[in-house]
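Figure caption, in words: inputs first, then the predicted bound structure.
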Amino acid sequence: MRGERLVIAVPKGSLYRETAQRLREAGIEIPSDTGRRLTVLTTDGKAELLLLRPTDVPAYVEFGAADCGIVGKDVLWETDRSVSELADLGFGRCRLVVAARRSDRYHEGARYPTFLRVATKFTRSAAAYFSDRDLPCEIIALHGSVELSPLVGLADVIVDLVATGNTLREHDMVVVDEIARSSARFVVNPVRFRAKYEALVELVGRLEEGRHA
Ligand code: PRP
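Bound structure (PRP present):
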């Protein structure tokens, strides 16, 4: 029966709560707390949810292990995986920015060092941004707590997501420039989209309705 039901890749973490709410509004039962579960089958058997790290969603969708998924645009910027983006679901909004210590005054036009050290989880977006501006830099790939790096002398600036701005404020850091804006996207595997066209079009329609509710 798996071939008939929709397999949906769902991001755990910060997008989970609103993803679950939007799926529930679209008629798909999903637990509010997943515990350590990796998959959930809805009781009507019409959908199977794969509970994934956000950065893993594109791989599951590209290779057809999931028919579709929900993922932040910020993840799509950084991946080579090929998925089709069908809709901007409008939640999980955040900005990818260059940020630095307030005291360095880069936000007020102070010059960057000749060879800038940039700490980030978003290595591809960061490299493209500084390359476009002909600013030589070393990209230092980190996996979290990126705001710490300028405070302890690891990097001059960071490229990171900002939502409320609280994390930057707490570390006396400021936005120097905005690179791009992100939000949650509905993505599909293009082959599965043709095979399960009606079910996927109905689902994306309902998910988008939630955006305007
Ligand atoms: C993200 C991002 C910032 C923070 C920004 O981190 O990398 O650290 O959220 O949110 P704010 O502007 O609302 O404070 P996340 O929670 O994903 O943790 P990590 O980067 O340390 O893994």
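The chain is about 30% helix and 30% strand.
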